[in-house]
Prior knowledge:
By secondary structure, the protein is mainly alpha-helical. It has a domain at 29-92. Helix content is 84%, strand content 0%. It has 3 helices and no strands.
Amino acid sequence: MFEIDPGRVRELANGVRGRATTLAGKAPVAVPARDQARARAKESLALTRAEETLKALDEVLKFHAGRFTGIGDLAEKAANEFEELDRQRAVELDQAGPR
């Protein structure tokens, strides 16, 4: 048997979702600088690769932010399900009465 504190699980869920928001806020990466650099050097292969890399980094940040959000949502769902199951069991025990 183990102990679950749904309130603490919800705190964890909110913290993880907060980190997701922080990650999502980091993308897009260096947009003004990369756009300005590309506008000045359209034929630069190095700047093309740098721009592609930064765009890929945007996708990585978006992916991980989504994963963090999903983990937070799953943790909150688990806490809710645990509480509901606990309530149902309490009702069943009350209805059963003493032995």
